[in-house]
Amino acid sequence: MDKDWAEKNKEMQMLLSKEATFRKAICKLIEFRESLFAQITQIVSTFPEEAFFQMPFADAEGYHSKTLAYSIWHIFRIEDIVAHEMIAENQQILFAMRFDQTIHSPIITTGNELTGEEIAEFSKKLDVKELYRYAHAVMDSTNQVLQQLSYADLKRRFGQEMIRKLQNTFCVSEKENAKWLIPYWCEKDIRGLIKMPFSRHWIMHIEAMRRIKNRLCKTARKGVDPVAFCGLSCNHCFLAAWCGSCRTIYSTCSFATVSPDGICPNVKCCREKGLDGCYECESLENCENGFYVPTNDGANAAKAQALYIRKYGKKAFLQVHDRLHQKYNFSKTQEILGQNAWEGLRILEEN
């Protein structure tokens, strides 16, 4: 488990155990959930449609053996059922907001019963944008449910009547690998449910999603030119685990993610001009397009690297980057190359 996430979860659980710190625990939990959800947001907003039904760890043991789409569905179907059918005793968000129609899911269950290729085929059918909207709506509604709880509510348990109610919703499959969920939930009190479906369950599956997307990016980058259009080195970028490079459809570069079409302005410009990269452009020195916009903190460092590539070539550029990373501890090149393109070029030449 991610060390930072584990610490935050441990802190929340400790605060939850005492009435004096209960309200603080709920606030911490909601804040933590929102930071975890940001991971899902980044994946949905930057990854191509095909990424959501890929299974790069199909034969592995663990949550990462699923797909990105399945993971989102599974997390929030369980939360929707537990938060609304059990704790709030009202209608699930899936039905209340008609997501059962707009997501195009062939099932309304948690998906526990699906295995192997069934998961991939299921994932292909989902409208990911609607699935994301559903996940967000469930999180928001659950957060409201959590805020309305009192410390005394934490001891509330669920009996046979709730088991029958959940069985009658048909939201949990009757197959052996799924039907255990209902008695598992119902044997817990609300404190126990907060500790699992609303927190730890998120951590386990979102951590698995990070492993999936990292593998997809790594696979996409195999054999691809590691020098970005703007002149940055994908091999040395702090976003390397998140990004498949701007030369693939798995680009999550900052300027790609904020562009309406998901394509960085530098990439678009180079393609229109038939250039391999900005380092081949005669307008490089005075360019303020995309990554080179003056308001970008790393604009001149990126331009310095493009100027270096123009003068010495890509191979020499990657080698100087290797030396810089051996010599200095930094994540962004502007930390070393500074805010002046020509000064940055001089530093590169001296290394």
Description:
Helices cover 58% and strands 0% of the residues. The two termini are 39 Å apart. With 351 residues, it is mainly alpha-helical. The protein contains 17 helices and no strands. The longest helix is centred in the middle third of the chain and has 32 residues, at 190-221.
Low-confidence stretches: none
What is the distance, rounded to the nearest whole angstrom, between the alpha carbons of the first and last residues? Answer: 39 Å
Number of strands: 0
Number of helical segments with 4 or more residues? 17
**Tally of discrete structural domains:** 2
Taken from the alpha-carbon principal axes, the silhouette is: elongated
**Beta-strand percent range:** under 5%
State the share of residues found in helices, binned by percent: 55-70%
Under the CATH scheme, which architecture of the largest domain would be assigned?
A: Up-down Bundle
What can be said about the biggest beta sheet?
Answer: none
Instruction: Assign the CATH class of the largest domain.
Output: Mainly Alpha
Order of helices and strands: HHHHHHHHHHHHHHHHH
Summary of the model, kept short:
Helix content is 58%, strand content 0%. It is mostly helical and 351 residues long.
Supply the key terms.
Four Helix Bundle (Hemerythrin (Met), subunit A), 2 domains, 351 residues, single chain, mainly alpha
